[in-house]
Structure to design on (301 residues):
């Protein structure tokens, strides 16, 4: 998404720079606090060609994209941001529909049709954390399973390249952008292995929707090989482009400026026009920006 924005802004004279590792739980913190990109660390789940090293000399992150539930949680100081102050300086610029479904699947050869079987039969299972999000810890906890208990029984939880080959159960988020680094694992394993997709109990889905700032939804038939019926789940409906209001701003001119953007985070765009309060997504009020008359920004360097 960052590369699309980079290409779209180039004809207008903007030199958008991309931070490829301003992601994970720190993404909204980087944005809200106006941090510079962190040192590069390889991600075992994503090859370097898809998440390359940042160019030297990037300034503070100015704006970007993040999953809508991360924005809601950061704005309210909830979920993974419960120990942070609410990041109420974030501003929503755009909300792009881009659904990500919570998926649970077992290799057909295991005979697993319900996660409750794992604890009842004390099976050693290898669990693959597939994709991004998905609430694996909450799902396992509902069935009385912890990482410690799984490892003590001879199993494991992880997302290593070896784990993508030798696993019994996969849990995580997946969606229609099948080549996206965080989702392509589902395309790969569903093509390579016969998977049985598992529907979670209604009580658990209600909890995941509430705790994860997500919505109830249906995994569509054919999303991946092996999904042959509609399956109830929870879904993250969109990605959001956001900015923060804490930045020193200057008026833009037609001459190129260097902007810093993060693939899954956001910061720093301020519109020089009236902002209004509206609901963007479910349950959370954000300060949203109307179409800009003039754009202001903080220098990235």
């Amino acid at each position: 998404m960052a590369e699309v924005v980079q290409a779209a802004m180039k004809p207008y004279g903007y030199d958008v720079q991309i931070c490829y590792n301003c992601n994970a739980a720190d993404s909204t913190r980087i944005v809200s606090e106006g941090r510079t990109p962190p040192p590069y660390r390889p991600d075992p789940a994503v090859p370097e060609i898809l998440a390359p090293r940042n160019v030297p000399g990037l300034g503070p992150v100015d704006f970007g994209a993040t999953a809508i539930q991360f924005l809601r949680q950061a704005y309210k100081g909830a979920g993974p941001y419960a120990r942070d102050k609410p990041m109420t300086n974030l501003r929503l610029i755009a909300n792009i529909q881009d659904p990500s479904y919570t998926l649970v699947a077992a290799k057909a050869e295991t005979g697993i049709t319900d996660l409750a079987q794992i604890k009842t039969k004390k099976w050693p299972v290898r669990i693959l954390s597939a994709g991004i999000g998905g609430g694996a810890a909450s799902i396992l906890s509902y069935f009385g399973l912890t990482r410690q208990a799984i490892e003590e029984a001879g199993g494991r939880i992880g997302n290593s390249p070896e784990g993508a080959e030798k696993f019994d159960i996969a849990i995580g988020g997946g969606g229609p952008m099948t080549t996206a680094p965080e989702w392509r694992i589902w395309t790969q394993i569903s093509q390579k292995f016969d998977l049985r997709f598992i529907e979670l109990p209604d009580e658990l889905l209600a909890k995941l929707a509430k705790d994860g700032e997500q919505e109830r939804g249906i995994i569509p038939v054919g999303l991946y090989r092996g999904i042959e019926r509609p399956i109830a789940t929870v879904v993250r409906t969109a990605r959001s482009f956001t900015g923060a209001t804490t930045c020193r701003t200057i008026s833009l001119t037609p001459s190129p400026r260097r902007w810093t953007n993060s693939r899954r985070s956001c910061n720093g765009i301020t519109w020089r026009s009236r902002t209004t309060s509206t609901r963007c997504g479910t349950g959370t009020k954000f300060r949203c920006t109307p179409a800009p008359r003039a754009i202001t920004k903080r220098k990235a360097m």
About this structure: The first strand starts at residue 15 and ends at 19. The chain has two domains: 12-98+239-297, 100-236. The longest helix spans residues 202-211.
